[in-house]
Amino acid sequence: MKNFIQRIPESNRHPRETFRLHLSIGLERISYYGISGTIVYYILNHIEAMSDTEIASIFGWFTLCVLLSKAIGGLLGDFVLGNKNALIIGGVVEALGAFSLCFGSIYSLYVGLFLISLGSGMFYINIIAEFGKHYRLTSKLLDAGFSIFIITTNIAAAIGAIMLSLNAFDYIGIFIFSGILIIVSTLIYANSKSRQDKDSLVPETIISSTYKKPFLTVFLLIPLFWGIREFIYPGIDTLNLHFFRNSDSGLNLPSIQAIESIFLFPLIIIASIASTYFYVAQMKKLTIAFALAMVSVIGLLLIAESLTTENWLLLLSPFFLISISDAIVFPLTYSILTKHSPVKYLATFIGATAIPIIILSQVNSLLVPNLNLSSTFTFQIGAIGFGLISIFLIWLYFKKKIAPSPFSNKSENII
User: Fold this and answer.
1) Degrees, nearest 5: CA angle 193-160-175
2) CA angle, corner 227, sides to 317 and 129, nearest 5?
3) Using CA atoms, how far apart are residues 237 and 152, in angstroms rounded to an integer?
4) DSSP structural state of residue 198
5) CA angle (366, 245, 237) in 5-degree steps
6) Each residue of 338-364: b (16+ CB within 10 Å) or e?
7) CA distance 304 to 307
């Protein structure tokens, strides 16, 4: 247990400058989620008649452009503009997009959504890179730092949703307020200190054999985790339909599934506090996450065979376990890349994580709905997928196949 969990020295604490970055990203995310939650209602009430299919297509393309702009924003930040300049320009572009929506025409809609998607990608990915740089010399706090970062964005998303509900019919007001928030957010960051002057303390070599396994983790294992998670959701929907049709209680699984979100937020808070004082190597955490996800899906599989109105509360256990897995995995993508990437290309590598997400999302959206799979089958595949990867990671752990980090002490192993 001593080797599994290490006490983090009291001298290692979260950099003060990151709190300014939390405020900056929080305001920007309030704006982004406030706008994205308003778009559909805005189109229905202010734009010429569109079918549901056209609206869904616009929102789908908007989401895809946001993901792609993260990859583009990382490249611009690392190779063309510099991270700080790319972030500031991204904030200005996003604000212009918000203001463009106020004109109320189909053309201003497309221009506004394009500018928002491009600007938010540039802003978000470069502020993550800047945030991570503050932790490069205290790498054992990376997981805690990015857990707090995720808490900030989730609180911002909730505030954005509340802003939407309070101004349900004042769309122009939401867009103007959102644009102002983005400008304020950008100004807050513009006055913050960059860590560029400290980057020389970290090796600048491009990917070597030492980096290969951490990068495979980020670009293969973690996307597989989210891909399998997305694959089992149609099974939950199928289970819900069967339960709803055979129940007089009116209970449905989406409302129960929402409990996962209620579990997740406090779990991430607990994880951030624990990770501030105790260190567990990242690959060990990932192994635990896959194992818990496997147990969760097996639980769903067993419950699916005998779900009734009397035992539906049993569903809370699988959702609680999968929420623990999510709380573990969420910060790992950014923390692993921050720890092992050449700092000169950090934003590029973080932005590139959007690519496997896009691919897996498109595969799932194209294949899964057309296969008409039963909930039992999707849970079986999910359990097998999580199980095989768990076994693989455990085998790696005992075989000690993963090399030590070049940025950590010699005694500190990645697993």
Assistant:
1) 90
2) 100
3) 30
4) G
5) 25
6) bbbbbbebbbbbbbbbbebbbebbeeb
7) 5
Please report, as a single letter, which amino acid is at residue 292. Answer: L
Percent helix, percent strand, percent coil in the chain, to nearest 5: 80, 0, 20
Burial class from Cβ neighbours inside 10 Å (0-12, 13-18, 19+) for residue 256 reads middle
| DSSP track, 61-89 | HHHHHHHHHHHHHHHIIIIIS-HHHHHHH
Q: Token digits for 397?
A: 């752990």
What is the rounded distance in angstroms from the CA atom of residue 415 to the CA atom of residue 391? 14
- Inter-axis angle of helices 83-100 and 171-190, to 10 degrees? 170
Task: Note the pTM of the prediction, 2 decimals.
Answer: 0.80
Tens-digit pLDDT string for the chain (415 aa): 556 778 888 777 888 888 889 999 999 998 888 888 788 777 777 776 667 677 777 877 888 888 889 889 999 999 988 888 999 999 999 999 999 988 878 888 889 999 999 999 999 999 999 998 888 878 888 899 999 999 998 888 888 877 766 665 577 888 888 899 999 999 998 876 665 544 444 444 444 445 566 677 777 888 888 888 877 876 766 666 655 555 555 555 544 556 667 788 888 899 899 988 988 888 889 999 999 999 998 988 887 666 665 666 677 788 888 889 989 998 988 888 888 888 888 888 888 887 887 777 777 666 655 556 666 788 888 899 999 999 988 888 777 654 444 434 443 443 3
Place of tokens 């055979």: 246
Q: How far apart (Å, rounded) are the C-alpha atoms in residues 124 and 272?
A: 21
Nearest to 228 by CA among 382, 365, 392: 382
Query: How far is the C-alpha of 413 from the C-alpha of 415, rounded, in Å?
Result: 5
Say how far apart CA 88 and CA 301 lie, in whole Å: 48
Q: Is 176 exposed, middle or buried (0-12, 13-18, 19+ CB in 10 A)?
A: middle
In which residue are the tokens 């929907």 written? Answer: 237
- DSSP summary character for residue 167: T
The beta strands (E) that lie in 305-394 are given as none
Length of the chain: 415
Closest CA to 156 of 250, 243, 323, 34: 34
C-beta neighbour count of 373 within 10 angstroms: 19
Give the angle subtended at the CA of 351 by the CAs of 188 and 294, to the nearest 5°. Answer: 110
Query: Rounded to whole angstroms, how far apart are CA atoms 361 and 356?
Result: 8
Q: Where are the beta strands (DSSP E) in 280-383?
A: none
